[in-house]
Specification:
By secondary structure, the protein is α/β, with parallel strands linked by helices. It folds into two domains: 95 residues, Rossmann fold (3-Layer(aba) Sandwich), CATH 3.40.50; 158 residues, 3-Layer(aba) Sandwich (Rossmann fold). Strand 5, helix 6 and strand 6 form a beta-alpha-beta unit. Helix 2 packs parallel to helix 3 and helix 8 crosses helix 9. The model has no long low-confidence stretch (mean pLDDT 83).
């Protein structure tokens, strides 16, 4: 390889068949160890064919610029290695050596799919945003944030509601809910908000009156809230369920009977409805 001239004025070409975020971060971390204000990082992402590699390499100044890359497609990576060698350009493969090491010590082959790290990060971000939404935005009595929800639950009060909302959040699903109670006024703009949130899955919760009465009684005793004992009376429970059913029919939402279903089973049902909805769009 031709000798490089010593200089503080050169370019670092970051090339990736994904987002290039990994290589870019590594380069930035390395540059922090030096005072090189005139060094520029040029980032080329989603490189998917040889012609793009040839075009990028034509811009690299021999004996001056360097190339850093994360290319998981083996054919493209090999093309880049050969081009760099033929042109006398220093090229550093960030992922390749570690991938080869993992191939040697494991029984699996690499998937060779670009952008997996970015997708993983996006899923983590989705989960964090959904959890934040569940804890801060989903109150049960306000509709101001429902248009941002992936799922809107219309429900009478039952003890495991919050657990379902948080389990959905852990899957990256923003779940808002509205408590339906004949003794409380409905939000004035409920129908308008539900209409605006047409991309959201609208779900009505229903269950057997005796079962709900028993659930409420158990929770009220556990919390020592004897003042709410009437909420567990069977007549009050039936009245709430009938009130909620009328609203479900008016809004035309999906209704699920969750009698004796665990929170996990309820979440799985909602998750399946979301999957089917996505397939239809």
């Amino acid at each position: 390889m031709n000798s490089y001239s010593v200089s503080d004025d050169f370019n670092i070409f970051v090339i990736s068949d994904g987002t290039g975020k990994t290589a870019f971060s590594v380069v930035q971390a390395a540059l922090l160890q030096f005072e090189l204000p005139r060094v520029s990082i040029l980032r080329f992402t989603n490189v998917r064919d040889k012609e793009e590699i040839y075009s990028i390499m034509d811009m690299v100044r021999v004996q001056k610029d360097i190339v850093v890359y994360t290319v998981v497609n083996e054919e493209l990576a090999e093309t880049l290695r050969i081009e760099a060698a033929n042109r006398g350009v220093i090229a550093l493969d960030i992922l390749g050596p570690l991938v080869e090491l993992l191939k040697r010590v494991s029984s699996r082959n690499p998937r060779g799919v670009p952008g997996l790290f970015q997708r993983s990060e996006e899923r983590v971000t989705e989960r964090l945003e959904a959890i934040e939404y569940a804890l801060e935005k989903s109150t049960g009595f306000s509709v101001s944030n429902l248009d941002k929800a992936d799922v809107i639950l219309l429900t009478i009060w039952y003890p495991h509601k919050d657990e379902c909302v948080l389990r959905l959040a852990e899957k990256g699903v923003k779940c808002g809910y509205v408590i339906l109670d004949p003794h409380l006024p409905l939000p004035m703009d409920l129908e308008e908000v539900v209409g605006r949130a047409s991309k959201s899955l609208l779900v009505g919760i229903r269950m057997d009156p005796e079962y709900l009465s028993a659930l409420r009684s158990e929770r009220i005793r556990a919390l020592g809230l004897n003042c709410l004992a009437e909420k567990a009376q069977i007549d009050a429970v039936r009245k709430e369920l009938d009130f909620a059913q009328a609203i479900y029919e008016k809004l035309g939402c999906e209704v699920v009977d969750i009698t004796r279903l665990s929170s996990e089973e309820v979440v799985n049902w909602i998750w399946e409805q979301l999957r089917k909805r996505e397939e239809r769009t």
